[in-house]
Structures are given as C-alpha cells and as structure tokens.
Specification:
With 919 residues, the chain is α/β, with parallel strands linked by helices. The chain binds a DNA duplex (11 and 13 nucleotides) through helix 1, helix 23, helix 25, strand 16 and helix 32.
Length: 919
DNA sequence: GCTAATCCGTA
DNA sequence: GTACGGATTAGCT
C-alpha cells in the first residue's frame, strides 16, 4: 500500500457545510440545500488531486448509541443538534460515495475516530504513508509514526494544513504520546469531555512537560506549587482519568475489510461524471471532466445551473514583476519615468489600520499593469537600513509626483490620503477609488477589499497581509520584515489596484452610476479625510468622573438584583438571567429568541410591576451599556498626538448610501434619555475660542417622501408650514386639528416614521402597542389621507420588480433581488427595501452634496471653523467665536439648498459649549 | 482566537 | 417594518 487517505466523514461534511453555509446553494433538480454536498466533493476531489492516494477510507459515525456513552452518560450531551438542512445532505453524500465506488466505513457503537485508529494500527507497518483528514485534536495521538500525518481544512474547501508530531509539539507543547493525558486535563467542550475545570491548555502543557503523564502528575501532587491548581487536580481526579479514557482512541476494532475494498476507485470515470450531472451537480460534473481531460459526455439531459448562479470564468491573471527601490538615484530615475504616466496607482504601508494613528513605513506605486515599485521609509528601529530611504529623500523625489496633477487611483485611498497628509505629503488629483467603484456598482456587496476584488474581477490570488506578517504567535510587525518581502506584497497591491482600475473604469462607464461615483463619492473623499483628521475634543476628566458615578450606581444595582434573585449570578449573561427570571422567579415568558426566552428591553418593560427586580434590571442594563460602550471606551480612543478622537467614516458599508462610523462610532452617541445625554456633554470645543454648532435637517425623510410621492396633502402641509404630525393625527383619529391631543400627535408621529420603513400592521401594532386590527385601520386611514404615498409605494415595488433595483433621486441604485421571490417573507422584506431605500438614500445623497459644498467653502473662504461630524441628518461643527452667526447662516444655506425639492427643506440648530447644549 | 447570538445605542 | 457598530457571553470551526 502506497498512500492511504483516511477521512473523518463528519468533520469533512461540517467543513463543507460551513464553508458554503452562507451561499445558500441549492440543487437545480431538487431545489434542496446542497452546499454541504457540493463542498464535500469539491474538497474530496481536491484532496485526491493533491495527494493522489492509492487507497481511501471514508469513515462515519454511526447513528446509534456509542460505547463511550456507557462509560460516561453525558458524553457528547452538550453537542448542538445538527442543522436541519445538513442531515439529509450527509445521507446524500454517503449515497453518492457509494455510487461512485467509495467504500463507506461505519460501525455500530463506535465512532469514526476508533475506526481511524484501527486503520492506522493495521496499516502503519505496510503503508508508506497514511494521511488522516479530521479536525479532531484527539487524533493527534495517532501521529506517533513518521509516516502518519493529519490534514485539516484551512480556508474554504481547497486549502489544507498538514499536521505531524513536531507540529503538535510546537502548537500544544506536548508530545503526541501525551495527547490522551493532555485531553484528560483540558477536556473538550464540544464532546462534553469534562477534563479538569479551571486548568486550560497552558496549565496542562506545563504540567505534562514536568511530569510526563497523568499518573506522573498525581504521583507528584505534593510538588505542585500552585495551591489552586493542586486543589483542582485533587478534587477532579476522577474526571481527569475518565476524560483520559474517553479521549483514548481504540485501535483494535474488528473491521471487516480488505485492502482491496479501499482502493481508490476511478472517480473520474464517464459514469461518475454523468452521475453527478444526473444528480443536478453540473459544476462538479464539469470539474471532474476537466481534471480527467475530457468533455462531459453528451448523455444526460442538459440541466440548469446546478449550484445557483454560475460564474463567468475569468482566466487567472499573471503575477507582476516588482521592485524594491534602494537608492536615491534609482528613485529619482523611476520618478522621472512616472512623469509620463496617464495615471498612477498609489498605496501606503503603515503601522496601523487606523489612519489617524498610523506611521508611514513605505509607499508603493504602479503606472502599468504587472509592474510595481516599493520604497521603504528609514526607521531607526529597522534592521534593514540599507534597503530603505529617508523620509526626506522620498519626499524630495516622490513628493512632487504625488502633489502633481497626474491622476491617482487607489483602493480605499482616503486612508492613504490621511496617512500621507499626516506625514507632510500632498496627494492631488485623486481620480478613482476601486473600493468606491465596486461599492456604487454593488452597494450590498459585503466585500470591497482588495483581496476579494482581485479574486472576483481578475481571478488573482493576492498575497494577503497575514501571508506577509504571519498569524498567531509568529505574527511579526511590518517594520521587522525584510523590505524585499514587503515590496512583493506592497507593490503587488499597487499593481492590482492599477489593474482593478482598468476593469472597474469600464464597468462604471456602462453602469448608469458613474455620476454617483464621480460627482458624489469621489469628491467626498477629501471631505471625510479632513473631518477624520480634525477629530473632536473630549473632556476626559469629565468622562472619568462619569465612570466613577456610573460604577457606583452599577454596583448598587448589582447588589439589589442579586438580593432579589436570592443569590449572585452573572446579570450580563442572558442565559443566566433567563434562568433567574423564568425558572427561579417564575415570571411570565413573553417572547422567544432562537435559543430560549428573550430578556430584552421590550420584555422587561412588559414585566415591569410584576417583580421589583425588573426595574433594577432595566437600570442596570442602561448603566452598564453606557459605561462599557461609551464612558470607558471613548477616553481610550483619544489620540495622544492630537488629544482628540478621530472616528473613521466608511463609505462602502451601508447599502442605502449612508456613511457609517467606527473606531469609535460617533453616530450612535446617546441622546434619548437624561443619563445618555450626560455623555454628549463630554464632547466639547477644542479651545475657549470655539463653540460647538449642530445643524440638523428637520423631518428630512418625510419631506423627501412628500417630494417623491407628490402627495397633494403632504405637499400642501409642508408648503404651508403646517405641523405634519398634527395633520396626520387629525386624519387618523377623524377629528379636527384643534382637537388633536399631545398623545394623538405622538402616535401619528410614529405612524409617519413607520410609513417610511414600509409599514406593516404587525410592525405598527408593536410600535404603538395597539392591536393588529387597530394598526391596520390606522394604515388604511393614512393611505386615504395621503393617497400619493400609497401610489409611491406601489410604484417603487413595480419598478423594483421590473428592473431588479430601485434608485434615489440622484440615481444611486440598490438591487432588490428578492422582490420577485416566491418566498413570501423574502418578497415582503424586499418590498420594504424598495420603499425605504430611495428615501433613506436620497437623504444620504443630500447631506453628502451639502458636505462637499461646505468643505469647499471652508477652504475657499479660509474659515477658522471646521466641520467635525456627520450623523446622517446632522452636521456638527467647531465654530470660532468671531465667526458664529455668519458661519451658521452660510452652512445652513448649503444644507437647505443642496438638493432643492418641491417642499421647503428646513435646517435647525444652535451653539453650545458641548454637543448636548448645541443639540 | 474566532463567530454567532443577544442586546442596545443612533438616524 | 429601514440603515448601522459594538460590548458581552457562550460555544467551537
């Protein structure tokens, strides 16, 4: 026997299932989920291709009870039930395996692990090499001979990690012979092997290095210094030995097979190829045919695409040739060459993903595909002085290129812009950003990062950052890596950016969204960069004081809650809280979550008054949330260099066109209740010469609704400056406006908002806490009062159904794929998206246009005042005291006139010494 | 060390 | 019912 591949079938199926979990693949013939099956064979064929085993053993766990269960009744008891769509696929996998000639090994009462152990034992002497595919740590114990190795999935289903004894030693710090002892201590949560609670991998490895075995440890208990470790070992001795036994793999099962039974079958035979096709797996069929060097035999009925949308195959792109620049002369020469460029792709390497914190380590660029250059910045800490140039040298030669009018392209170039500006460079004429282009083309796309774009658009596998710096313990800092290596990575990034530019430029031209990219997103880059660089000032001592106040409050509430509950528990754990509320205190359950009963705010509100603990819980939640998310977190984000916090705005996250904010998120600073508002008081002007100004659009989305729906009643209300909520209330309750109470108006306000989200009777009834029927009749009356709104909604849905997307007033598009779905709830959700996105998106467009104009004005007129933050319908400024009223009037005007509509746009706001007072 | 689930802050 | 980001816990791909 030359090479035996043993596969742990369940590990294999799980790997495949999760690798394709998000893709929702369904079989074209049956319409059933097929991701796991598809992935299984994709991965299997890859393994067979890569390792060419002469023999293959497919092992599976049996369905029935296990012998280990007799030893320990809780064995595998905590294991989650299998996902419901997976079980039939395991059956399908086994059927297919049988059909294409693989022998499936399964033994009642014994897990696949024991079969694997036995196979190893039986063939370790005769087989040249044995490869075990599994994810199970227990199996490391089988690696005691050099010819036995393990494989584990790495990423996707086409990459594998090879594991052998030295690897295990390096990873876990123990010898493969000690694995059972190791598992005895560490245990395994997924199999519910208890181990010794309180001692983890680090402790176990230390103990075993010292005393070799579990027996050794127990013989030498007295020598163990750490008293808590000693107690744990003593108290859980029985568990330790039990766990060791559970983790010990049997190697002496009676397997009723011969070597011949597990010979690798001819899985590329015409029959097999046709078989996959007949089962609806066209891609697998084609893959097989291709690797066998033949056509798919024209025998079976041509079927539709098997695994959902087939992708166009783009020929794999070629690697470029890259160069590290190591002398000033070389740099000067290359820079002279750059002068003739039509466009230059630029990328920077730094010390941090946060541009405000980042130090510049190098710059890469490319003005032609398959080429790229990298220049590394000299750094006293670097070991590679001779491969770097000083910042001054780089600035002298590259600076003029970057600041010239030669067009630049980048991938997320706002980042590079901020970094370069922070280091004294000027980056002019940014013409294209590949990330933004990808986003306006596919605003729902989750991945606009370069590695993904390179794969999708160029069929090119980039060197990833992790490839360069390593992961885990071996991770290095970029400064400590040889610039020759960094150059390969960095120059490739510039090259790939250049190539992506060429592809995306064409896509954008034919797309209909070119104006959104060129006139909105691109011009916004320097605006956001400036805001991020400016940051906002935080009153840190004030936050520290708040932290103390909140802490006191939290500790008090915690005591009260534990007292009410009859003992301490982890209040933050919803699982424990469920136990306390619904088991111990026997309170009503109100609604369910996927995993149990909900304890969210809505539920607690509902239970208010039924037990004194509820009141305390609500307060506890409020204070802990505020403290951990804001009070403690924000001061940590203050940049030591500037003394301010610099958020990062992302232009490519929200499918509607909104911005999002991270590190920290300054778009969700509390405002609704009194305690929350305390936080806004900590956002202050940077000096006594300045004040905070907040300007926000009044009812912007409802005004946009009035405009796009052309509803006469709504248009009239706004054009006459009437109180829209009051008007709506009068219509909903059938009373004259003079008789509308405050409460009625509040309800009407909720209805007005809900309509923008694509109101449903169910949603409205929850929001207003009224019966479904009542909500339904509200909606009917609403649509009678504003019939234009009803027709707008119908029109958007019809437009979406016809075109597959909806758009904003300025032409920003969002796909609504599910709008033609036969799946009712998917279709309803898509309809709400079709109704809401044009409104939310138009509002986002409007404020973006205003921001671009404002930024231009601030620069042109050299205002001392600055724009700091954007919160969807609000802009926050830091205004010099001498400029106050003049500046406010000018900015208000830009906001109000950014996108004229058929209704007046109203902007309101005021000054304050902090954000709370200004709002 | 990573991800999912839950909860909660904003517009 | 729309659109986000982040803290925490729990469990394990």
């Amino acid at each position: 026997m030359k090479r035996l591949l043993i596969i742990d079938g369940h590990a294999f199926v799980f790997r495949a299932y999760f690798a394709f979990g998000a893709s929702n693949l369904t079989n074209s013939k049956t319409g059933k989920p097929s991701g796991a099956t598809f992935g299984f064979f994709k991965m299997l064929f890859k393994l067979l291709q890569d390792y060419a085993p002469t023999h293959v053993a497919m092992t599976f766990d049996p369905g029935g009870p296990l012998e280990r269960g007799k030893i320990f009744e809780n064995y595998k008891a905590t294991r989650k039930p299998m996902p419901e769509d997976l079980r039939p696929q395991i059956k399908e996998v086994m059927d297919i395996l049988g059909n294409i000639g693989f022998r499936v090994l399964k033994l009642e009462g014994h897990e696949a692990d024991d079969i694997i152990g036995t196979l190893c034992e039986n063939y370790k002497a005769t087989a040249k090499e044995i490869l075990i595919f599994s994810g199970d740590k227990d199996l490391y114990q089988l690696l005691e001979k050099k010819n036995i190795k393990m494989l584990r999935g790495k990423k996707g289903v086409t990459e594998f990690v090879e594991i052998d004894a030295p690897w295990v030693k390096e990873e876990l710090g123990v010898d493969v012979k000690q694995i059972t002892d190791y598992m005895g201590i560490v245990g395994d949560t997924s199999d519910n092997i208890p181990g010794v609670k309180g001692i983890g991998d680090k402790g176990a490895s230390k103990l075993l290095q010292e005393y070799k075995t579990l027996d050794g440890i127990y013989k030498n208990l007295e020598k163990i210094k750490n008293p808590s470790m000693k107690t744990k070992l003593t108290e859980q001795k029985e568990n330790a030995y039990l766990s060791k036994e559970l983790a010990t793999i049997k190697r002496d099962l009676k397997l009723d097979i011969t070597e011949k039974d597990i010979e690798t079958p001819d899985f590329k035979s015409d029959q097999a190829i046709l078989y996959f096709k007949s089962q609806g797996y066209n891609t697998l069929s084609r893959d097989l045919a291709k690797s066998a060097g033949k056509e798919v035999p024209k025998d079976a009925e041509p079927t539709e695409s098997a695994e959902g949308a087939e992708e166009k195959t783009i020929p794999a792109a070629e690697k470029g040739v890259y160069r590290l620049i190591t002398s000033v002369d070389e740099l000067a020469k290359i820079c002279r060459g750059l002068l003739k460029s039509r466009i230059i792709a630029v990328d920077t390497e730094t010390t941090s993903p946060n541009p405000a914190m980042a130090d510049l380590l190098g710059i890469s660029f490319s003005n032609q595909e398959k080429t790229g250059f990298y220049v590394s910045v000299r750094n006293s800490a670097s070991l590679f002085q001779d491969k770097t140039l000083t910042m001054e040298e780089i600035k002298e030669h590259l600076g003029p290129i970057l600041s010239s009018e030669i067009p630049k392209v980048g991938q997320n170039i706002k980042y590079d812009l901020i970094v370069l500006e922070n280091h004294g460079f000027v980056l002019n004429n940014i013409q294209f950003d590949t990330m933004l282009a990808s986003y306006v083309l596919q605003p729902e796309g989750r991945r606009h990062n370069m590695d993904a774009l390179a794969k999708d658009l160029l069929n090119y596998d980039t060197i990833t950052y992790d490839d360069l710096v390593g992961t885990g313990k071996k991770k290095k800092e970029l400064v400590d890596i040889d610039p020759d290596q960094v150059a390969e990575y960095a120059a490739e990034d510039a090259d790939i950016t250049f190539r992506l530019y060429q592809v995306l430029r064409k896509s954008i031209k034919d797309s209909g969204v070119e104006p959104i990219l060129r006139q909105m997103e691109m011009p916004l880059i320097p605006v956001l960069a400036e805001m991020e660089k400016t940051g906002i000032s935080l009153d840190v001592p004030y936050f520290e004081e708040l932290a103390r106040d909140f802490d006191r409050e939290i500790r008090h509430l915690e005591g009260e809650i534990h007292k009410q509950a009859g003992g301490p528990f982890n209040i933050a754990s919803t699982k424990e809280l469920q136990r306390i509320l619904f088991d111990e205190l026997k309170l009503r359950t109100v609604k369910k979550t996927q995993t149990g009963f909900s304890t969210d705010h809505e539920v607690l509100e509902e239970l208010l008054g039924e037990h004194p603990i509820i009141d305390k819980l609500l307060d506890y939640r409020k204070y802990t949330k505020l403290k951990s998310t804001y009070v403690d977190a924000l001061p940590k984000m203050v940049n030591p260099k500037t003394g301010r916090v610099h958020t990062s705005y992302n232009q490519t996250i929200a499918a509607t066109g909104r911005l999002s904010s991270t590190d920290p998120n300054l778009q969700n600073i509390p405002i609704r209740d009194k305690e929350g508002r305390l936080l806004r008081k900590g956002f202050v002007a940077g000096s006594d010469d300045y004040e905070i100004l907040s300007l926000d659009y009044s009812q912007i989305e409802l005004r946009i609704m009035a405009h796009v729906s052309k509803d006469p009643a709504m248009l009239e209300a706004y054009n006459r400056g009437l109180d829209i909520h009051k008007r709506t209330a009068a219509a909903l309750y059938g009373v004259p406006e003079t008789e509308v109470s405050a409460e009625m108006r509040d309800k009407a306000k909720v209805v007005n908002f809900s309509v923008i989200y694509g109101v449903t009777p169910y949603g409205l009834s929850r929001n207003l806490r009224i019966p479904r029927e009542e909500a339904k009749s509200f909606i009917e009356r609403y649509m009678t009062q504003y019939p234009g709104v009803k027709s707008y909604m119908d029109e958007m849905v019809a437009f979406g159904e016809k075109n597959g997307y909806v758009q904003t007033l300025t032409g920003r598009r969002r796909p609504v794929v599910d709008i033609n779905s036969t799946h009712k709830s998917a279709k309803e959700a898509a309809k709400r998206i079709a109704i809401n996105s044009p409104i939310q998106g138009t509002s986002a467009d409007m404020i973006k246009i205003a921001m671009i104009a404002i930024h231009e004005d601030i620069q042109r007129n050299k205002w001392k005042s600055k724009m700091l933050l954007q919160v969807h319908d609000e802009l926050v400024f830091e205004v010099h005291k001498k400029e106050k009223e003049e500046f406010k009037a000018a900015m208000k005007k830009y906001m109000e006139t950014a996108m004229p509509l058929d209704v007046p746009i109203l902007v309101q706001g005021k000054f304050g010494i902090n954000w709370d007072e200004a709002h």
